[in-house]
Amino acid sequence: MSVRAGSGESSNYFSRFYVVAGRSLAQLVRSPSHSRRAEAARRSARHILLLTAILSVAIIALMIMLDAREIALMPPRGAASLWPIRILTDFGKAAYVLWTLAGLLLVVAIVSPALRGNSRSMLLGFGTRLQFVFFAVLVPVLVGDVVKWIVGRGRPFVGGEANVFNFRHFGGTEAFASFPSGHAVTSFALAFAVSALWPQARLVMIVYAIAIALSRLVLLAHHPSDVVAGALVGLIGAMAVRYWFAARRLGFAIRHDGAIAPLPGPSLGHLKRVARGPFAP
Fold it and tell me: Which of 86, 189, 232, 246 could form a disulfide with 238 if both were Cys (CB 3.0 to 4.6 A apart)?
């Protein structure tokens, strides 16, 4: 949403709203322009291939050696004492995360046309970062749903027994939507996206993603290999979206070695003051 105000723009709020919305969407699909995008693509591809190789081996090993054993170690499904875990796990639900991000984007879209100058630029810059986080979660979630449908792995105890190799490919039912874990996809994608923009939040986001993944195991909603697969899909999808934004000079810079780094952005405190500005007496 890094849309610059023109000197001859309309004084009508709704005209400015449509201009901001249109340009914000157009910048996402414009041709990549960064001169070092090829270096960034090669570096990202190396990291994705390495991550895929390591976690794929881990997924296979977990399926063979740990998945069945882990099920026996968990408390009974539906136990009353698990209510805190049920609350925790909802923080990794894709619908909740995406609707929250969409709501924040809507607030930026509504408020920004009422602002002028630096205040507007600051808020739109934050909007660009929100766009990145939204798509960094949405893209891997959609990919994960397709993989779930193709693989069709049964959740723990579907069929009456702890069969970790219970598959019904292209089944399309919730009972056979265990691989990969959608909550793990969402939480790891969100953790990567937030950490990519604000590295100081990395530790908190890692703890968040791991907590969500573990909650899926405790609730017997997934096998260990499912949550690792979810983490893999979430991380790869978010990395791909980060490259897409960096190649278009949106929210990220590309260094000479191809590394992608976040551009300096406004603080949350400053953004709160900016957002309050148009409504202040």
Answer: 189
